Amino acid sequence: MMKVKKRILLLLIACIMLVLSACAGTGAGGKGGKGELTIYSPHTPGFSEELAKKFEELHGTKVNVHYAGTNVLVNQMIAEKNNPKADVWNGGGGILAFESAIDKDILAQFIPQSAEDWAVVEDGIKMKHEDGYYVGVQVQVLGFAYNTDLVTEEEAPKTWEDLLDPKWKGQIQFPNPAASGTSTLMVMSYMMKHGEEAGWEYFQKLADQANSIPDSGSAPTSAVAMGEALIGIGFDFMAYDQKERGETVDFILPDVTPILVNPAALVKGGPNPEGGKEFLEFMLSKEAQEIIADWNLIPVHPEVKSKTPLNLADIKSHAAILDMDWVNENYDRIRNEWKDKIK
């Protein structure tokens, strides 16, 4: 009897060990035992979910995406600094939020192998951080959305100065630079070229042309789609998203304008750093870049074609030269001064 009980006990132990071994071998993410991966992203949920699904399919690692606005995510990563919950931060409306986050000690240094030979700045576009704290995974262009039912392509403004034409009086919208990083970049880019005094003079005139200056970066493009404005300042993909939905909206690439990569970065001290590195490698792969292109974003992979009229090779000649040191030093000051100077 004792021998039977002993055999049963040994059999139970063996079964338990087998189950534990299987769990360790596959983990929460399946193949390879890499565990789960957590991504923080302000991107559209559908876009992030498609990327996550493709990564899971290729690498067998379960991906959890936590969605929130960029500022919310940054504050959350700061609050979690002693016990990080995220492995990767993907997207933030351009590089400004990432540049600012470096000083907050929430990012780790990692550049995917495919981007190691990239120049830090290519034709005025900063493609990656000089010390490896982020890498650009897609490109976005600041320009002019216009309503094609109400404005012809020939009539539409082609330069920033064209926006001051009296015919656009009361017909323009642009985001509030005190609230929108998109618009802050617009202001600072103009000042780098023309000086602060001329910049403030220009933006007071532009504010006088506007019928609304909303806080949201995408609101002006939506207003154009609804006919509430003829011209809206925003990023290219905002206009092309509206156009894809059947709205009478198109986009003008200005002669010289801010062009930014939207980066991804490894979170410092994240629970799955190896999985995070693998995800960043994936973001520059052909598979991920094709998803990026499908969402009307400009890919950085040379073999992936943009689905919009804009591609990286052609837009480089339009890129405004940005002094990122000056941007970092003066970003908060310019935002605060906007509230006092522009009436």
From TrEMBL:
<protein>
    <submittedName>
        <fullName>Extracellular solute-binding protein</fullName>
    </submittedName>
</protein>
<feature type="signal peptide">
    <location>
        <begin position="1"/>
        <end position="24"/>
    </location>
</feature>
<dbReference type="InterPro" id="IPR026045">
    <property type="entry name" value="Ferric-bd"/>
</dbReference>
<dbReference type="Pfam" id="PF13343">
    <property type="entry name" value="SBP_bac_6"/>
</dbReference>
<keyword id="KW-0732">Signal</keyword>
